Amino acid sequence: MKLTVFEKSIDPATQSMLEKAENEGIETVWDRYEKQLPQCSFGQLGICCRNCNMGPCRIDPFGEGADKGICGATADIIVARNLLRMIAAGAAAHSDHARDAVLTFKKMSEGEAGSYGIKGEAKLFSLASEYGILAEGKSREEVAGELANALLTEFGKQNGPLLCTRRAPGSRRRLWAELGIEPRGIDREIVECMHRTHMGVDNDATHILLHGLRTGLSDGWGGSMIATDVQDILFGTPEPKKSTVNLGVLSPDKVNVIVHGHEPILSEMIVETAEDPELLGLAKEKGAAGINVAGICCTGNETLMRHGTPIAGTFLQQELAVITGAVEAMVVDVQCIMPSLGSLTGCYHTKFISTSPKADFPGTLRMEFHEEKAYETAKEIVKTAVENFPNRNLEKVNIPEEKQECMVGFSAEAILKALGGSPAPLIEAIAGGAVKGIGAVVGCNNVKIQHNYGHVNLVKELIRNNVLVVTTGCNAIACAEAGLLVPEAAVLAGNGLKGICEALDIPPVLHMGSCVDISRILVLASAIANSLGVDISDLPAAGAAPEWMSEKAVSIGAYVVSSGVFTVLGTVPPVLGSQAVTSLLTKGLDGVIGASFAVEPDPFKAADMMLERIEGKRKALGLK
Ligand code: SF4
Ligand code: MSK
């Protein structure tokens, strides 16, 4: 099977770079996907196990061969254990990112991370008071130090609940307590996943999955929420601003530096150093008109939200950015970075620079990043890019024209501010029916789905039906590329939503940030539920991850559903090998936690499922 470039992506910039790759004989993620086909059906169904060395074991899905692993584990046990390990990895990724942000914050408070400061003073004091820290008579740094220590305790504490869970409606917290899934220390939940899934420990699928929900909650209401809060203190809470997206943001005459990965700790410094007069002078000397920093994935979303730095693309566009031939440096930290970038950058002049002490790749120039000399390292990285500019091979350069404007920066605080300080106007619009409900659409790209097709069509369908969409991660970038993140996109919305967008001068799709910023959506949903005196599961709201691929998305799914939000997945998780697990996730959970998953690759049908859910919730609340 050989897909055409039009079947691979709906985005013209992506299509044209895929053509360039084909012409130059360059392999991309789509080629490697085709070479993997047909993919292993045991893996797809989740029924292979390598958790001990008596295995590997696999269950015959047709009932003709083995129905148990060597130890006696059934398909239900194997599928549940595999899923729990995915949740553990996802929660670990978000939460370890959070830990590093807190450690930087702590070093900053001790004067050991001089390049960082406190840009979000209001958030510092509000968070300190949430954590019971008295600020009176103390310096900002003293308060920051005490807060950092309190936050670090959240990772290692043995008993719950995590303090951020107090933001959730009381009814939701009571339900978590009754079910025994109130999250305790973040690290504890993740470690317990690994313990439970060791050979011969937890062997009841429901029991295993309940711990999956608890671990997910320790991510959403723990690791991710702490990452968002601390980053807002260090770098400021995002406010609405304009920017541009897609591969066309790369400059033909400036030094292009791409920041890719997830942590703003590095990218914030890169953005700052790109304005350093010494480096700008060097760029001029090398024949460049300036320095252009652009993002990919969530590190890009972080700088986009706070500085309006342009975004070059989504997860599936990372290789294509290099293929433009116009990138002097691809600077990466952690998560969602394809190891293929090493050999790919070798075909162009691009320097592939890895910076995280935790993440190295074949073919990188290693420039490890530490907070103590953050500015110096960032400057060295950008200098390397500038010095690489004369190596650009003009014959290989082809930057697509596509560059789309977008309005971003809708933190929960910014949304409430736009509404006049409280969620009341939004609640009124929902109660009156102008806005039918809220759709949270998030997550990655996945080569199994035509690039951006799921994202864009699902979101368009929701806004057409008067559902206000909040978005993060690669969905947000996909929507921006399709022109949905500008106030003018209101023409694509139903009349009710259109009126609200026009009155407030906002887009019908609100970019709330990076993947860890899904915690902002939880905070917003809680604010609405609390002001109505209901649970999150009572709200006319639904979630979706139309093109998800990462383990982080599995953890996100676990905490979003556990928070009471029905969620549609666009790619099939590896659970279909167990009827018990599949039925619990798609039906049983509803009766337990007030929400469940659905799987629907067709974005139009997925939108219908979300709309049906929203309608059902409206009816239950007595709304027309
Ligand atoms: Fe096989 Fe059981 Fe070992 Fe898994 S834990 S590999 S099912 S023997
Ligand atoms: S970057 S986790 S591909 S959304 Fe957060 Fe995109 Fe998914 Fe990575």
TrEMBL record:
Its EC number is 1.2.7.4. Keywords: 4Fe-4S, Iron, Iron-sulfur, Metal-binding, Nickel, Oxidoreductase. One of its GO terms (biological process) is generation of precursor metabolites and energy. The keyword Iron applies. It catalyses: CO + 2 oxidized [2Fe-2S]-[ferredoxin] + H2O = 2 reduced [2Fe-2S]-[ferredoxin] + CO2 + 2 H(+). [4Fe-4S] cluster 1 binds at C40, C48. One of its GO terms (molecular function) is nickel cation binding. CODH oxidizes carbon monoxide coupled, via CooF, to the reduction of a hydrogen cation by a hydrogenase (possibly CooH). NCBIfam families: CO_DH_cata (TIGR01702). Homodimer. This is Carbon monoxide dehydrogenase.
